[in-house]
Amino acid sequence: MAARFLLSFWDGFSYPTRMVVVRLSSGGLFVWSPIALTPDVKVGIDALGPVRHLVSPNSIHHLFLGEWKTAYPDAKLYASPGLAKKRKDLHFDATLGDSPPAAWAADIDQVEMAGSAFLTEIVFFHRASRTAIFADLIENFRPGWFKGWKGWLARLDGIVMPNGGAPREWRLTFRKKVARARLARILAWEAEQVVMAHGEMTRHDGSAFIRKSFRWLARG
Ligand SMILES: [Fe+2]
Asked: What is the pLDDT of residues 97-109, one digit of tens each?
């Protein structure tokens, strides 16, 4: 319900979405939250290596999985918690949880940000570049990205720099004690960079940025 609300609330906003691609030490590609597979995107991807893993980080990031699976039938498809039930048209090889599967454990760690009854995100960490990867748990739009009343709403929702974070309506659904334990493991990565699906990346001192973005979790 909350997930549907999150989606419909922002309909009509310009809400650009970033995809992340990691080349694993095996040479295969880990494609996180794939965007529309245009001819240009496909050329770029094919130049990087063979697509092995198609990954949904949470159940509102799934729209293009089907077209990627059609284009790369040998790639494995990974559901975020709750997604397999929502996308019965797709066959998932596995549902992601609180530890990385063997397929990418050597390169990428992960934590299931549990504690919300409505939406559970898997957060990833690419060890070699010390990059933490967030979908919607941290949104970080530039001030001025949204204009007028939309900008006012976005600031109120807590998704605009320098006070970016999870949308406030989602924060309200968390059991904080559970989520805090998961956040502690994310902070223990000591990330240098933070990349997110929506908004500006952080290149340095990522751990401090993550801590600040989750200040809402420290209270109450
Ligand atoms: Fe999103």
From this structure: 999 999 999 999 9
